[in-house]
Write a structure and sequence with these properties.
Blueprint lengths: L1 H21 L7 H9 L1 H28 L24 E5 L2 H6 L8 E7 L3 H4 L7 E5 L2 E2 L3 H8 L7 E8 L2 E8 L5 H5 L4 E3 L12 E11 L3 H9 L11 E12 L2 E17 L5 E23 L2 E21 L16 E23 L2 E13 L5 E3 L4 E3 L9 E11 L1
Antiparallel strand pairs: 1-2, 2-3, 2-7, 3-4, 3-5, 5-6, 8-9, 8-17, 9-10, 10-11, 11-12, 12-13, 13-14, 13-15, 14-17, 15-16
Length: 413
């Protein structure tokens, strides 16, 4: 099962990359290809602007699928198609606000979009907007997040003028932005951008959340299976070794998240001996602890990479019992070997480093996958035998550990 899940995750990543590549230029003929070759530098400068249009196209595609409509046309790359001169431009780079930024700027509202860069000579620059402004309202409507502002912008046409309310230095100001045609000079002059470019800007990695997940562990079952087979049970298969759990965490600043998590595994089996006695097997293993994670949005706020670790503890328990079904207070002699019970337990420290990626399907919901290594450590190799907590000598099975692949969902912002 571990190998199957690994292949599925790798295939998913490759598929995502192929989709990203295929979503590029829609070449119509060889002349288009030659034109793209001659203007590759220009295309690279404008791909960042095209990303906003592609995000809106993704939302339109989702709605079209839900309604059973056709696939909407992929938006043209800025500067490549002649019709691009009529496209609507604000001439700014944007970022969704996070709590830390709002607090540092003394901004008390729960809506708005941060300006992280401005095009010199662009429409917003002419209207007086600068890096660090927070756009609060667009044409009288409160701006909730970046995509919301983009959708409001797309309702306008060349020549329209809109009123924008914005926050700057603890003051609320207004200005009017007129949508003029995007000029060739603005496109080509790489020095026209002020502030942080969209490629390098600090993109929000969210505020916090959590959710359930399943973790597949590549564990060497040899010793454990040797023991349970000696007691008459079938060996455990690899696909049965799945930890189910969940956790949550919050952003404490600079993309660093702190929280807690836990996961557990349980395996049960029954068998009947040749003498007709019933045997039961129960194996439980679980761990939990404090989770510290660093999250980074390298390419888009919808794709979040993370790396971190869990530090905590865990326990593995093995129980086996047999009964002939004739329990009685009149027959409690230890000489009755038809009824017996074994229990072994081991506690340990846990260090669980991992790297992962989350893809946001919605602003409040995402799918997360990660790879890591579940490492357990105990001061001594011996297990405890219960109820007297005696150490058990000899080659014992290790607590469940090994390479991991986890997949789950994330609820939160």
């Amino acid at each position: 099962m571990y190998k199957i899940v690994k292949r599925i995750l790798i295939a998913g990543i490759l598929y995502s990359l192929s989709i990203s590549t295929a979503a590029g230029i829609d070449f119509q003929d060889e002349s288009d290809l030659e034109k793209a070759d001659n203007n590759i530098d220009k295309l690279e400068k404008n791909l960042e602007m095209w990303e906003e249009d592609m995000e809106k196209w993704g939302e339109d595609l989702e709605r079209s699928i839900e309604r059973g409509n056709g696939i909407p046309s992929i938006p043209p790359i800025p500067g490549y198609y002649d019709s691009d001169e009529n496209s609507i431009r604000l001439g700014i780079y944007l970022s969704d606000l996070d709590f830390e930024e709002a607090y540092e700027m003394h901004y008390e509202e729960c809506y708005g979009v941060l300006v992280t860069g401005v095009v010199k000579g662009g429409n917003s620059h002419k209207a007086g907007l600068t890096k660090g402004d927070i756009i609060m309202e667009f044409d009288g409507e409160k701006v909730r997040y970046e995509d919301h502002l983009i959708s409001l912008r797309d309702t306008k046409r060349i020549g329209d003028t809109v009123n924008i309310k914005y926050f700057r230095n603890e003051n609320i100001l207004t200005t009017n932005v007129t949508f003029e045609k995007y000029t060739e000079a603005e496109e080509d002059d790489s020095q026209n951008w002020t502030g942080t470019s969209k490629k390098n800007k600090k993109m929000s990695v969210g505020f916090g959340g959590g959710g359930p997940y399943a973790t597949f562990v590549d564990y060497d079952l040899t010793r454990l299976n040797n023991y349970i087979e000696s007691r008459g049970f079938d060996p455990i298969k690899d696909d049965a070794l799945v930890f189910v759990g969940g956790g949550g965490m919050g952003n404490v600043g600079n993309g660093l998240f702190i929280g807690g998590m836990g996961a557990g595994f349980k395996y049960e089996s029954n068998t009947t001996t040749t003498a007709g006695n019933e045997r039961k097997l129960n194996i439980e293993s679980g761990f939990g602890g404090v989770q510290v994670v660093k999250k980074v949005a390298l390419f888009s706020p919808k794709v979040i990479f993370d790396f971190g670790t869990v530090i905590g503890g865990g326990r593995t328990t093995i129980e086996i019992g047999q009964t002939d079904g004739n329990y009685s207070w009149d027959d409690t002699s230890v000489d009755n070997t038809n009824n017996w019970y074994e229990k072994y337990e081991k506690d340990y420290f846990v260090l669980y480093p991992s790297v992962g990626v989350m893809v946001r399907v919605k602003s409040w919901f995402g799918i997360h996958a990660s790879a890591g290594y579940l490492k357990t450590y105990s001061p001594k190799d011996a297990w405890k035998s219960f109820p007297f907590e005696d150490d058990v000598a000899g080659p014992a099975p290790e607590p469940i550990n090994g390479q991991t692949l986890a997949i789950g969902v994330w609820f939160g912002h």
